[in-house]
Design goal:
81% of the residues lie in helices and 0% in strands. By secondary structure, it is mainly alpha-helical. It has one domain (2-141).
Amino acid sequence: MRALNALVLCVVSIIAQVAANAAESQVSNEHELLEMCSTYSQAGMRDCLADKADDSQQVLQAAEKAAAGALARWDEDRKYQDEAAKKLAASNQEFARYRTAQCAFSMSLIGGGAGNSREIGRLRCVAALNYHRASQLRDAVADLPFK
C-alpha cells in the first residue's frame, strides 16, 4: 500500500509539473498576462484574466501538493521532513496573505480607473504571483534526493 501511495504521489507530481510548465511557459509577468488578454474588450479582458487567475490557482495548488509530496519522499530524517513540511505550510499561508495585500496595492495604483480596470489589475496580479510562486516551489524541491 505504501508503495502504491508513493507511486501515486510521483505520478501526481509529474502531471502537475508538466501542466504547470505548460501554463508558465506562456506567462512570466503581469504585462505578458495583459498582452495575452488584450485582444478583447474591457469586459472580455476581465473574463480572460479571471480565467488566467483560476488557472494559476490550480497550477499553484498542484505545485503546493507536489512540494509536500517531495518533502514526504525526501531522503532525510523524519524530523527534518516534518520541520520542512510545517515551514512549507506556513509559507503557503503567508504567500496567500502577501498576494492579497500586494494585489490590493497594485489595484490601488489604478486610481480612479473606470469600469473593470481595478479588477483587471487585481486579476493579473493574482495570476502572475501564483505562477511565480508555483515556479518557486518547484525549484525549491527540484534537487531533493528521494528515498
